[in-house]
Design goal:
11 strands; seven-stranded mixed β-sheet; globular; mainly beta
Length: 122
């Protein structure tokens, strides 16, 4: 019954924007740190952004700093990733994950969503 579901992906032109959503069912998402990861074909899974469960401190990968913003809506049990100024190299499947730790180490996360495809292309 525990589930994380990503949505909001799609096809967008370079320079465009998308907002990804990560909705939790079966547990209270605000008790967990949330990470966004992405994986392109043939590449390892890469940390994109994370937000802590207590202080709300955020962290971003160097390649997305200044362009992406992570946020929580605890009332909706949902975490968002606002992606602006998208580049072709942002193309990947994006995953959200919930864990009791913090950071980009995948073993820190207990629950993973199925992923949503983001394609940035002309």
């Amino acid at each position: 019954q525990v589930q994380l579901v990503e949505s909001g992906g799609g096809l967008v032109q370079p320079g465009g924007s998308l907002r990804l959503s990560c909705a939790a069912s079966g547990f209270t998402l605000d008790y967990y740190a949330i990470g966004w990861f992405r994986q392109a074909p043939g590449k390892e899974r890469e940390g994109v952004s994370c937000i802590s469960s207590s202080t709300g401190i955020t962290y971003y990968g160097e390649s997305v700093k200044g362009r992406f913003t992570i946020s929580r809506d605890n009332a909706k049990n949902t975490v968002y990733l606002q992606m602006n100024s998208l580049k072709p190299e942002d193309t990947a499947v994006y995953y959200c994950a919930a864990g009791t730790g913090w950071g980009f180490k995948i073993t820190e996360y207990d629950y993973w969503g199925q992923g949503t495809q983001v394609t940035v292309s002309s």
